[in-house]
Write a sequence for this structure.
């Protein structure tokens, strides 16, 4: 199998993997046996939610597809929710995958089992949540897909527990970070993009986010995906997830922890030390980027060497922003299928 890394530009207004894109997949031994996926009319929800006790959480999750199908876990980011995958999940379920979309800690109906558990948003804690969910559902190996916080979490799980991950799709690439790395100042324009991180570092910012959570989230949606006309109903469907009683605390802690302004839990120290060395990801991976991503994100060339196995990068054209799975669901679903067949 061809192990060479490639970069492609894809227009999501066409079906994925047609024309030159299909040639690339076929050359890698991944030609689709059936026609390319066609996006359905957007459903209003992901269906009835399920709950399972996993680690320190009672995790709320959506599930679609056959119970005996290959398992895909899809992870959302901030400030989004499970509806990031509202169109991806049925596409994959129709192809025989069992699709699980959990609400992260601090979102939707996911709750901490104990009032005494720290409302910790550090990257290691979220990754351990995924392993706990897999264990609770008795899932040995899964395909992982993620966007924003979800992409970082998926990268961590793939890097540290590769035996549990069959393949990875990560929006904006390799997002594993460290507090040490974040000590270094960025160029002014890059710092400006992180304005909300510095806002959250203040008590005024924490109070402001608590008071104006939905308005704040909508501003992030608009700036991160400037060409996505998502509409009031689509935003309102996701905004309910921010009513979670721990949402603000988790969000604030996440960004403060990144800057070393908040402590993590000692139980994650060893894990964070491993992540600070930026471990290589060896599982089959596709990284995706939109051509209109208005959120801070690295250039694909900056992380290509972090993937040592079968790897492809694809940039989607057509005004695709930060919330790529919801803006280009067919492209994201096809990427999951591709890494499964790699």
């Amino acid at each position: 199998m061809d192990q060479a890394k490639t970069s492609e530009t894809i227009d999501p207004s066409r079906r994925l993997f047609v024309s030159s894109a299909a040639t690339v997949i076929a050359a890698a031994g991944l030609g689709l046996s059936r026609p390319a996926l066609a996006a359905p009319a957007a459903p209003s929800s992901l269906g009835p939610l399920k709950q399972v006790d996993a680690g320190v959480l009672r995790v709320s999750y959506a599930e679609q597809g056959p119970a005996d199908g290959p398992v895909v876990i899809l992870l959302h980011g901030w400030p989004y929710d499970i509806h990031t995958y509202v169109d991806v999940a049925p596409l994959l379920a129709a192809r025989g995958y069992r699709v699980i979309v959990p609400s992260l800690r601090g979102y939707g109906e996911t709750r901490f089992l104990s009032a005494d558990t720290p409302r910790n948003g550090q990257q290691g804690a979220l990754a351990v949540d995924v392993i706990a969910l897999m264990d609770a559902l008795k899932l040995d190996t899964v395909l992982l897909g993620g966007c924003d916080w979800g992409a970082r979490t998926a990268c961590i799980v793939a890097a540290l527990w590769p035996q549990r991950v069959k393949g990875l799709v990560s929006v904006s690439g390799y997002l594993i970070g460290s507090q040490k790395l974040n000590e270094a100042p960025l160029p002014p324009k890059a710092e400006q993009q992180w304005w909300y991180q510095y806002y959250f570092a203040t008590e005024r910012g924490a109070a402001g986010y608590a008071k104006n959570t939905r308005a704040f989230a909508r501003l992030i949606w608009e700036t991160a995906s400037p060409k996505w006309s998502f509409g009031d109903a689509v935003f309102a469907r996701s905004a309910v997830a921010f009513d979670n009683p721990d949402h603000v605390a988790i969000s604030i802690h996440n960004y403060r922890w990144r800057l070393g302004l908040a402590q993590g839990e000692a139980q994650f120290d060893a894990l964070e030390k491993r992540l600070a060395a930026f471990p290589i990801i060896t599982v089959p991976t596709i990284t995706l980027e939109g051509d209109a991503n208005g959120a801070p994100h690295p250039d694909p060339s900056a992380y290509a060497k972090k993937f040592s196995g079968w790897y492809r990068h694809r940039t989607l054209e057509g005004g695709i922003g930060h919330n790529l799975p919801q803006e280009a669901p067919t492209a994201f679903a096809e990427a999951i299928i591709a890494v499964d067949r790699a």
The first helix runs from residue 19 to 27. The two ends are 8 Å apart (CA to CA). Residues 1-36 have pLDDT under 50 and may be disordered. The beta strands are 6-10, 50-54, 57-64, 71-75, 98-102, 111-112, 142-146, 165-171, 285-290, 311-316.
